[in-house]
Amino acid sequence: MGRCKRAATIGTCATASGLCHCANMDILDAPPPPDSLIAEYAQRDGYYTDCFEAEINTAVTLEQLICAFYTQPLFRAERFVLRVLARSPSTDADVRALAAGSQAEFAVWTVAARRPTEILMKDRSGRTLSWLQTDGQQLRFGSVVVPVKGRRGELTLGPVFHSLLSAHKFYSRALLVGAVRRVEKV
């Protein structure tokens, strides 16, 4: 199989781990929209914020995006890991309740903020936030990593985060591709 033409495109590609087998789809690395729930974090010193987006041919509601994102096969694998290692089980019924707004907790996350077109969830540690947004045909997924004070009092994300950043970006794009594929099946 061929290689992706550029880092921001997940195409028909195969990796050594076999994680990415996707039809051509542009996943763009973009700044968070200025009025979004994660925009304020992008302005804070020391914080890491990313935003990946994909455009599709049909309008999608936030409820549909949440269901597609958290029930896709790749995220089901993450849910399994969280169930085993973090002792945080979650079900598709939990996803549907989160999507409907009738449940504020899901696996290791709690809803930090929600608007009709976006949701921001904070993990138990308070160090990471996960964000989904739909603007009709534009779907976005982003993350925030909260820094901690280093030994000298400076804000730092830490060496583990920096060593995993490339993997995080690849995984984030793959998650968005999986969500797009699911909403396009509906």
What labels describe this entry?
30% strand; alpha+beta; 186 residues; two-stranded antiparallel ribbon; six-stranded antiparallel β-sheet
Structure explained in plain terms:
The chain is of the alpha+beta class and 186 residues long. It has a single domain (29-185), classed as Alpha-D-Glucose-1,6-Bisphosphate, Chain A, domain 4 (2-Layer Sandwich), CATH 3.30.530. It contains five helices and ten strands; from the N terminus they run E-E-E-H-E-H-H-H-E-E-E-E-E-E-H. It has helices at 39-42, 62-71, 73-85, 92-100, 159-185, and strands at 9-10, 25-26, 28-29, 48-60, 105-106, 109-115, 118-123, 128-145, 148-149, 155-156. Helix 2 (62-71) packs antiparallel against helix 4 (92-100). The longest helix has 27 residues, at 159-185.
In short:
This protein is α+β, with helices and mostly antiparallel strands and 186 residues long. 34% of the residues lie in helices and 30% in strands. The chain is globular.
Give the SSE map.
Blueprint: E1 9-10, E2 25-26, E3 28-29, H1 39-42, E4 48-60, H2 62-71, H3 73-85, H4 92-100, E5 105-106, E6 109-115, E7 118-123, E8 128-145, E9 148-149, E10 155-156, H5 159-185
